[in-house]
Amino acid sequence: MSTEEQGGQKTAPVSKVAPATGKLGVMVVGLGAVATTMIAGVEAVRRGLAKPIGSLTQMGHIRLGKRTENKSPMVKDFVPLAKLEDIVFTGWDIFEDNVYESAAHAKVLDEKTLEQLKPYLETIKPMPAVFDQYYVKRLHGTHVKTGKSKRDLANQVIADIQAFKKTVDRVVVIWCGSTEIFMHPAAVHESIEAFEKGLDDSDIGIAPSQIYAYAALSQGVPFANGAPNLTVDTKALIELSKRNAAPICGKDFKTGQTFMKTVLAPAFKARHLGVRGWFSTNILGNRDGEVLDDPESFKTKEESKLGSLDYIFQPELYPDLYKDLYHKIRINYYPPRGDDKEAWDNIDIFGWLGYPMQIKVNFLCRDSILAAPIALDLVLFLDLAKRAPGLRSIGIQEWLSFYLKAPQTAEGLYPEHDLFIQSMKLKNTLRHIMGEDLITHLGLEYYD
Ligand SMILES: NC(=O)c1ccc[n+]([C@@H]2O[C@H](COP(=O)([O-])OP(=O)(O)OC[C@H]3O[C@@H](n4cnc5c(N)ncnc54)[C@H](O)[C@@H]3O)[C@@H](O)[C@H]2O)c1
């Protein structure tokens, strides 16, 4: 057993992760730009038309043992993940468009690619959604469920999940729906009982995303949230997740600007460079941009995006460097650009003796191209967590913070936003569940 670099931290005897046999059913809430780009992408990869770039589960390797051992299998060969060939997609949307029509509308993928995939994409038609315009002001849904109460709507989603479950071996639900208005947890979120009473009373504190999440967790089905709205980050749904061994993680895909932030900020911090100001602005012209143009949905996004810097910089420990940081974020709806988001960051830093410097970042990205592999990885890893005895009943899977702007943690813990710490945590979790030594990067053994 190695001692140093791996830290000798072989963790307690690990029970075996169950194999990924049979079909994995992926139920996507919201078949918009991100969802259709993920689904079309998975099919393109299955047919050998393209590579799954940006997906750690599909492209990543993981080092095992000492550096001298040269052992770095692919992640997908090391942990028992569902194969892309075994994924079956379905979903819900407030519009009737099938996945081909919705992808054509989103204009993320080119016509040639979509035409090749058309016969498959056309077969995926959304089920009617749970929707209420109170929670997403800019949308007018036409393909929606009706019910006497929120409980009734939850039961309809449960029926959808149960019916789909009969056709596959395992199920994961992921929210790729629009960003709902900003909400604080309320009394209705304090316990499962309070939440269920809230469903009966159609409590205003229960948004549609929470109804889907409740339905999934009540069936023991893992749930991921790609948007920043309040969904599984409440006491009630965390409790339900643990009770039914249905893993959950944080929220809001970490794709463009926040991804860059959680790479750059740890570098400044590591070098003890001060930061006085960080101004971030974006232009975005897709439907997501339109929804975020509404101040109430923007507020939800803003809160999620603002969090990272404070936690990374720890101004309470480093007041000379970060106490006066002014952090501002803008998102502007600008239709001509569609899904091709452009983000600008101006960062006012200071160095030795307080001398100021500036950094400008101009990221011309493609929102859904960045988000699709994250959605895929989250689905595959949540399905893995469900089959891992050490993970399935702990509720929050903090090791998936790597993918999310707003990581979720156990009560009382601050979230870890540094992308590199998140990446180490993720890989060590995989080593841990497979009974491998953890890697701490100490490395003194090479110098004995
Ligand atoms: N693309 C990125 O880089 C990125 C990053 C982080 C978060 N997100 C979030 O992911 C979500 C999806 O983004 P997108 O670009 O695909 O948006 P989109 O507007 O193209 O798709 C959202 C879809 O959800 C549907 N929808 C809304 N409410 C619904 C409900 N209650 N039930 C079922 N369907 C519903 C809409 O009709 C639409 O088809 C957004 O909330 C966005 O903020 C995206």
Detailed description of the structure:
With 448 residues, this protein is of the alpha/beta class. The protein has helices spanning 33-46, 56-59, 75-78, 99-106, 111-121, 150-165, 192-200, 208-218, 235-243, 257-270, 287-292, 295-313, 319-322, 367-387, 419-433; strands at residues 24-29, 87-93, 127-128, 170-175, 223-225, 248-253, 274-284, 326-333, 342-350, 356-364, 404-406. Helix 6 (150-165) crosses helix 8. The protein starts with 23 loop residues before the first strand and ends in a 15-residue tail after the last helix. The mean pLDDT is 93. Bound molecules: nicotinamide-adenine-dinucleotide. Nicotinamide-adenine-dinucleotide binds next to helix 1, strand 2, strand 6, helix 11 and helix 14.
Give a brief description.
The protein is built from 15 helices and 11 strands.
Counting helices, strands and paired strands, the structural category is alpha/beta
- Give the quaternary arrangement of the chains: single chain
Low-confidence blocks of residues: none
Could you tell me the number of beta strands? 11
Order of helices and strands: EHHHEHHEHEHHEHEHEHHHEEEHEH
Main-sheet strand order equals 3-2-1-4-5-6-11
Largest sheet: 7 strands, mixed
| Overall body shape | globular
Mean of the pLDDT scores? 93
Radius of gyration: 22 Å
Helix percent band: 25-40%
Strand content: 15-25%
List the ligand species: nicotinamide-adenine-dinucleotide
Distance between the termini: 15 Å
DSSP summary: helix tally: 15
Which descriptors would you attach to this protein?
single chain; 448 residues; alpha/beta; 7-stranded mixed beta sheet; 4-stranded mixed beta sheet; 11 strands; 37% helix; binds nicotinamide-adenine-dinucleotide
